[in-house]
Every structure is written in C-alpha cells, then in structure tokens.
TrEMBL record:
Top-level EC class: transferase
Statement: the UniProt record of this protein carries the keyword Cell cycle: no
Name of the protein in its database record: Bifunctional pyr operon transcriptional regulator/uracil phosphoribosyltransferase PyrR
Organism: Hyunsoonleella aquatilis
Gene assigned in the entry: pyrR
Pfam families: Pribosyltran
UniProt xrefs under Gene3D superfamilies: 3.40.50.2020
Keyword Transferase: yes
Domain of life of the native organism: Bacteria
GO molecular function term, any single one: uracil phosphoribosyltransferase activity
UniProt xrefs under InterPro entries: PRTase-like, PRTase_dom, PyrR_bifunctional
Phosphoribosyltransferase domain ranges (all copies): 3-156
Enzyme nomenclature, EC number: 2.4.2.9
The entry's keywords: Glycosyltransferase, Transferase
Signal peptide limits: none
C-alpha cells in the first residue's frame, strides 16, 4: 500500500481558519445559522470549525449539532454486516435556520443526499449549505457541490483520501492511499 501526504498539520490549520473566515463573511454573527457535523467523521471537522469560530474569532452564538445518516443511505440494505447507528444530537430548532452541513470528504455525494433526507425529520430549514475539507473532483454520482471547500483533489478510483484528526488519530493530516 502506498500513501502520499496531501495536507500536513500546518496546512490543515490554515485551511480550517480560512473556512471559518468564509463562514463569517456570509453568516456574520451566526444568529440564524447552525452547524451540523455528519457522523461519524464530519463531527471532528465540525468541532474544530466551531472552536475556531468561538475561540479565535469570538463568534459566541455558534450552535453545533451532529447528524447520523446510517439508515438514510441508499445502500444501507446492501450492507453485509449489521449496521450500527451513531448519535444524532440536535438540541435546537432547525425550522427556518440556515444550516451548514460539515463533512470531511465529498466523493459521490451520496452521504450528503442521505443527510438532506435525514434533516427533513427536524423541520424545514431556510437553506442548507455544505462545507467539506476535501472535495474529490469528477467523482460525483449526484448533482451536489460544496459551498465551502478546503482543497479540491483529483483522485483515481483505486485511491482513497484519508483525513486524520489529532484528537482521534494522533495527528492532523490528509493522505492519499492506494487501496
Ligand atoms: O460522498 P460520499 O461518496 O458519500 O463519500 C463521503 C463520505 O465518505 C466518508 O465516510 P465513510 O468512510 O463512512 O464512507 P465510505 O465508506 O463511503 O467511504 C466520509 O467521511 C464522507 O462522509
Ligand atoms: O476517498 C474517499 C472517498 C470517500 N470517503 C473518504 O473518506 N475518502
């Protein structure tokens, strides 16, 4: 198995700050905007973005939730193993809110499609945007694109992008791995 570093910790940090600033540019004080990290791995990115907004840019109003999409995926019946759901935690109203979905990688777009279905159970948002650290270009199965992207990469199908977070994986990094 070969692997190549796409982003190191310093580059990840710079990108996270840029994404936070782009969010502030559009959503100002977040009075009608909420962040929703997609389980499982979008949650790490969502936590980071929320912390940067609060600690580095003094946005005090940030609401953060987590959304599990396991049983909303269009392929969940095809799974050979029993599926285990993750926690959904949304302790605020989404009705008429501006939602920002946050996930680490955007590939086919099927996870985001599932999230769009799952969130409907919580109400009717005003709008939904998507923030992703890595946008795998030319690989979409659905017409879904990010509004805020950390890095766009060209990846062939035999390769996988792996995003690591220091609080879970010992380092912040993004690797391209030959499967
Ligand atoms: O745009 P998509 O094709 O849905 O892929 C993106 C998803 O893939 C990863 O999750 P995970 O590793 O759980 O999913 P995977 O098994 O599809 O790679 C990643 O955390 C995204 O949520
Ligand atoms: O390369 C990919 C594709 C989907 N999900 C990932 O985490 N990486």
């Amino acid at each position: 198995m070969s692997q190549k570093v796409l982003l190191n910790a310093k580059e990840v940090n710079i990108i996270l700050h840029r994404l936070a600033c782009q969010l502030i540019e559009k959503h100002t004080d977040f009075s009608n905007t909420v962040l929703i990290g997609l389980q499982p791995r979008g949650v790490f990115l969502a936590n980071r973005i929320a912390s940067i907004l609060k600690d580095d840019y003094r946005v005090n109003n940030v609401k953060l939730g987590y959304l599990d999409i396991t049983f909303y995926r269009d392929d969940f019946r095809r799974s050979e193993k029993p599926l285990e759901a993750n926690t959904t935690k949304i302790d605020f109203l989404v009705e008429d809110k501006n939602i920002i979905f946050i996930d680490d990688v955007l590939y086919t777009g099927r996870s985001i499609r599932a999230a769009l279905t799952a969130i409907q159970s919580f109400g009717r948002p005003n709008e939904i945007e998507l923030l992703t650290l890595i946008d795998r270009r030319f690989s979409r199965h659905l017409p879904i694109q990010p509004d805020y992207r950390g890095r766009q990469v060209d990846v062939i199908n035999s390769e996988k992008v792996v995003v690591n977070w220091k609080e879970h994986d010992k380092e912040d990094s993004v690797y391209l791995i030959e499967k």
